[in-house]
Automatic annotation (TrEMBL):
Swiss-Prot/TrEMBL keywords: Acyltransferase, Membrane, Transferase
Taxonomic lineage from the root: Eukaryota, Metazoa, Spiralia, Lophotrochozoa, Mollusca
Entry annotated with the keyword Transmembrane helix: no
Pfam families attached to this UniProt entry: Acyltransferase, GPAT_C
Predominant location: membrane
Protein name (database record): Phospholipid/glycerol acyltransferase domain-containing protein
Subcellular localization(s) per the UniProt record: Membrane
PANTHER family per UniProt: BCDNA.GH07066 (PTHR12563:SF23), GLYCEROL-3-PHOSPHATE ACYLTRANSFERASE (PTHR12563)
GO cellular component terms given for this protein: mitochondrial membrane
Residue ranges occupied by any Phospholipid/glycerol acyltransferase domain in the UniProt entry: 142-274
Similarity comment text for this entry: Belongs to the GPAT/DAPAT family.
GO terms, molecular function: glycerol-3-phosphate O-acyltransferase activity
UniProt-listed GO biological process terms: fatty acid metabolic process; glycerol-3-phosphate metabolic process; phospholipid biosynthetic process; triglyceride biosynthetic process
Length: 738
């Protein structure tokens, strides 16, 4: 976004008075009503039900399914086809949206007027919306891909687009939201409902349902209608973005490949809530089953929301980009992710996602399916990475993050104020914005009050004449506090990986970083630091998308390692020279090393000898030790969760076990370590994190799972090096956490 657009500033869409300046008495008296009346109605939305049901794709799926059911009985075939066609029409009625432009207008007026009952503001960037509006005029479909944080997400995008006279998209929703009365409202707002599992039978694809969904979305796209769906599948339970699902995105890509559409604009969208509106996810993090959505549950939730305060929400729209241009670039430069997406036929743990993942795409099974899957994977990862780095941390996020990474034992207000200034500068250096303003003391106290004393308590200390804040690290409250903190951790994830690698290679521990300097030089080998850092990224690859698909992990880590030298975390052995020459040559040597590390022409350097390069860790400086400790604590809970899973697998997986039993025992063991004080980070026993660690080991083919006798079984891979790899990873993570 250029400087001119950025200078347009933020807008609170709940306050329309700024848009009605120099208006008459009526507008000043009834601003929301006058504003809503002046907004234009969108043109009529198409009804494509008939064309979907009679499309060749659906008719072929019906016939193939009927033949499988009748098993060659030609006399029964016509009757079975007629029955499937009837079921097909019924499925479409349950799936389709019934968009009403008038209802969108009425709902937008209602939300604009009454969201302020429990939200201070809904902030959007005017410059971002100008970019989206310009893109929407190009006569190609707009594909809005938000990260999913709350049920309010469903209508916030439509509401914001209405404020800028941008046509509302059709919104994909999981059928868990297909609740009486509320489903009708969602359909009128553009919602269409899809199964949480596309196939009712795990071992057999529902070809008719897949064809219906594929054709419905393709028809909408071919008529120029926009789509909105949550690329992660479901709401995050951890506050971090989840690994994206490619099922619905594959429909858009296939529509482009089949020339159904000439292009589409992809718009990543991200939400920042100061306080979780949907309630916390502590129940699920403790290993208890999710409570199913019901009509009464939804009504109670709405009443609860209206009688509480949830602070502000910030919504960021990343710059729209052309699908056509992305596909051309992605084909020219194939994506090589840290681990490949789960291939078809292999199972992975269920996270309650609303949409299919990469192992359950809607793609056809032609010869190019695998390459197209990788294109979809690249596009999905690019969207999530972009969204992550567009997310503006709110006040509650920063305070929770600082308390869990720097001040787990509590902190005085004066010191926390300094740290808030420091963390804002760090984020600005990473080109990240923050979603609040004001004096730091006021921001801290506001965040503490909003989160509540059950998460952050405060106590006046007479002897120090200052207020002291204490984070609640007990179960399950720490899970909720961690949710807020994780909104910031993404920005420091890769830097944290490098810090952990430095500690491992320097034989340092968190305990060493908290004590005074020992006077012993700690040196690390450059290539070994990079090697271990890449290995850590591989182990925790399900936690973050560390870099965009167009970048190389080794090169990015090498460049970041050089930045550690410029930040004086590390130093290199330099020959003696006078101060002036040393100062003049410092930047040049740094640039030479960086250029070498980023050199993509490997053939020119092939066979050349490069001397081992050592770095000295500047542990004699207290500020460097403090920074390294902070960086390690960013990933500490994640690394400990993976360590717990690896150790438990080594001890328990001598033979196959039912996956449900394994996870239940694993959760109990992890919580037991926390309660007995044997864990460094109490949030490491969160069930979602443990499941993510198990899935990582499945992706690395160290663990496997399969369905048998109505149970999903989990076991250690029969590859000879599986147990050795687990032991190696356990040793690596134990060193980092010692």
């Amino acid at each position: 976004m250029n400087g001119g657009l950025r200078d347009m500033g933020m807008r609170n869409i709940l306050d329309v008075r700024t848009e009605l300046l120099n208006s008459g008495l009526l507008a000043r008296s009834f601003p929301t009503e006058v504003y809503a009346i002046n907004r234009p109605l969108f043109k009529t939305y198409p009804n494509i039900t008939r064309s979907v049901i009679t499309s060749p794709r659906v008719l072929i799926a019906i016939e193939e399914t009927a033949r499988q059911i009748t098993k060659g009985d030609m006399d029964a075939l016509p009757k079975q086809i007629a029955l499937l066609e009837k079921n097909c029409a019924s499925t479409m009625r349950r799936m389709k949206a019934s968009v009403s432009s008038f209802f969108i207008k009425v709902t937008a007026w209602f939300l604009t007027k009454y969201l302020s009952k429990f939200l201070h503001s809904v902030q959007v960037c005017r410059g971002q919306m100008m970019m989206v509006k310009e893109a929407s005029k190009r006569n190609v479909p707009m594909i809005y891909l938000p990260l999913h944080r709350s049920h309010l997400d469903y209508i916030l995008v439509t509401l914001i687009l209405w404020h800028y006279d941008i046509r509302a998209p059709f919104v994909a929703a999981g059928d868990n939201m297909n609740i009486p009365f509320f489903n009708l409202l969602m359909r009128w707002l553009g919602g269409f409902f899809i199964r949480r599992r596309l196939d009712s039978n795990r071992n057999k694809k529902d070809m008719i349902y897949r064809a219906l969904l594929h054709e419905y979305m393709t028809k909408l796209l071919s008529q120029g209608e926009g789509l909105e769906f949550f690329i992660e599948g479901g709401r995050t339970r951890t506050g971090k973005s989840m690994i994206p699902k490619g099922g619905l995105l594959s429909v858009v890509v296939e529509a482009f490949n089949a020339s159904e559409i000439s292009d589409a604009f992809i718009v990543p969208v991200t939400f920042s809530y100061e306080k979780i509106i949907d309630g916390n996810y502590c129940r699920e993090q403790m290993g208890l089953p999710k409570i199913k959505e019901t009509f009464m549950g939804a009504v109670k939730a709405i009443f609860r929301v209206f009688f509480n305060t949830y602070g502000s929400v910030r919504v960021d729209f990343a710059q729209p980009f052309s699908l056509k241009e992305f596909m051309l670039h992605a084909k020219a430069y194939p994506y090589h992710p840290i681990t490949l997406p789960t291939p078809p036929g292999r199972h992975s743990l269920d996270y309650g996602a609303s949409y299919p993942n990469f192992s359950s795409t809607l793609l056809s099974t032609n010869g190019e399916a695998e390459s197209t899957r990788m294109l979809v994977k690249a596009l999905a990862d690019h969207v999530v990475y972009t969204s992550d780095h567009c997310t503006a941390p709110m006040a509650t996020h920063l305070i929770a993050f600082l308390l869990l990474t720097k001040y787990r034992e509590g902190v005085y207000l004066r010191e926390l104020t300094k740290s808030v200034h420091w963390i804002i500068r760090e984020l600005q250096a990473l080109h990240a914005d923050v979603g609040f303003c004001g004096q730091s003391e006021h921001v801290i106290l506001y965040a503490q009050e909003l989160l509540g004393k059950h998460l952050i308590s405060k106590k006046w200390q007479e002897e120090d004449n200052d207020l002291k804040l204490f984070p609640n690290l007990s179960l399950p409250s720490v899970f909720e506090l961690s949710y807020y903190a994780n909104a910031v951790s993404t920005h420091f994830a890769l830097e944290s990986v490098l810090a952990v690698s430095i500690l491992i290679n320097g034989n340092l521990s968190l305990f060493h970083l908290l004590t005074s300097a020992t006077g012993v030089e700690k040196k690390v080998l450059r290539e070994k630091v990079l090697e271990v850092a890449e290995e850590i990224c591989t182990i925790i690859h399900n936690e973050f998308i560390f870099l965009p698909p167009c970048e190389n992990l080794h090169s990015v880590l090498a460049g970041m390692l050089e930045s550690f030298v410029s930040k004086e975390i590390l130093s290199t052995e330099e020959s003696a020279m006078d101060d002036e020459l040393a100062f003049a040559g410092k930047d040049r040597r740094w640039a030479d090393r960086l250029a070498l590390s980023l050199d993509v022409d490997e053939e020119e350097n092939e066979g050349s000898y490069v001397a081992d390069q050592y770095y000295q860790i500047n542990t004699e400086r207290s500020d460097i030790r403090e920074r390294l400790h902070f960086l390690v604590c960013v990933l500490g809970p994640i690394l400990e969760a993976h360590f717990l899973v690896i150790k438990f697998a080594l001890e328990e997986l001598h033979t196959e076990l039912p996956e449900e039993d394994f996870m239940k025992s694993l959760g109990g063991c992890a919580r037991g370590k926390v309660e007995s004080g044997l864990a460094l980070f109490s949030e490491s026993c969160a069930m979602i994190g443990l499941k993510s660690a198990v899935k990582s080991l499945q992706d690395l083919e160290i663990l496997y799972s399969y369905d048998g006798a109505n149970l999903r079984m989990l076991g250690l891979s029969e590859q000879q090096d599986s147990r050795a790899m687990l032991e190696h990873y356990a040793s690596l993570l134990e060193t980092a956490l010692s």
